[in-house]
Design goal:
With 156 residues, the chain is α+β, with helices and mostly antiparallel strands. It is built from three helices and five strands; from the N terminus they run E-E-H-E-E-H-H-E. It has a five-stranded antiparallel sheet. It is elongated, with a radius of gyration of 23 Å.
Length: 156
């Protein structure tokens, strides 16, 4: 299970709208100070994703929840999104190269194949997106912000 913490934006009629902050893979490496990837990640804007997750338990804005999705569905989704356009690009380019034996035909075939692969991936992604196994689920719910209260003792 792939897990990530998210913040509740709103909860209405059993559906929670969540905001997930995207974190880079950098952070635990010993060479992060000299790594080009770490520097590029610091330069780019922080990105957030919003998603809707079914929650029968009422949630309040600002509350933190742990969201998870199975590894198998994540891998299948990645294969769908990345491999279909790549297979379309290579397959159609090879087919056009074989038929017409010119680089221009191969380039055109690759463009058509990649576009077709993207469209096919989008079609399948919309169909698979409604299936329960591809939906994120709430694994843990933290206390709401109003439940936490700090009190200081007065010095005597």
């Amino acid at each position: 299970m792939i897990k990530e913490w998210a913040t509740v934006i709103s909860w209405q009629q059993g559906v929670a709208q969540l905001r997930c902050e995207q974190h880079s893979g950098c952070g635990s490496c010993h060479s992060q100070g000299t790594c080009g990837t770490s520097i590029l990640n610091k330069m780019g804007p922080e990105s957030t994703q919003q998603l809707n997750v079914i929650s029968t338990q009422p949630l309040v804005p600002g509350q933190r929840v742990e969201v998870g999705i199975t590894e198998a569905s994540l891998i299948r989704s990645a294969l769908l999104v990345y491999m279909l356009p790549l297979v379309g690009l290579i397959g159609c380019a090879a087919l056009m190269q074989g038929w017409f034996n010119t680089d221009l035909a191969a380039a055109f075939g690759g463009l058509v194949g990649a576009t077709g692969g993207f469209m096919l991936a989008r079609f399948y992604a919309q169909k698979l997106g409604d299936k329960r196994q591809y939906q994120p689920v709430i694994l843990q719910i933290a206390l709401p912000p109003s439940a936490l209260r700090l009190e200081q003792e007065k010095p005597q």
